Amino acid sequence: MERVTGIGGFFFKTSDPDRSAAWYAKHLGVEPPPPSYETSSWWQESGPTVFAGMPMGSDHFDGAERSWSINFRVADLDKMVDQLRRAGVEVDVDPEEYPNGRFANLRDPDGNGVQLWQAAGADATGPVSRAALD
């Protein structure tokens, strides 16, 4: 069976695409779309990705008007949070450490929720086949 190899794009509505692109580039290092086909798009490091539908009404989205949530992997959550706060971005660090890592939450200029994740446990050690667990 053929499988997808990762997420090739994430698109969302914004009132000011240039402002959003600049914010994500400045604060999170996510480069904006390239100006031409001769320039490559932003490349992310390989690593774990969760792809999951969430129940309608889930508080994961901060209200019914939100229909998406994005989670970015980071190598060092504390350093990223410090960098964001020094730039004036409000960040809420989850005080709990979960078996799969640590999390922090913030908002982009349009009020969309962004989550940062420093992986731990199986997600930090590399891929484990589900078949290998059977």
From TrEMBL:
PROSITE patterns: VOC (PS51819). Pfam families: Glyoxalase. Signal peptide: none annotated. Residues 6-119 form the VOC domain. InterPro entries: Anthracycline_SecMetBiosynth (IPR052164), Glyas_Bleomycin-R_OHBP_Dase (IPR029068), Glyas_Fos-R_dOase_dom (IPR004360), VOC_core (IPR037523). PANTHER family: GLYOXALASE, GLYOXALASE-RELATED. This is VOC domain-containing protein. It comes from uncultured Nocardioides sp.
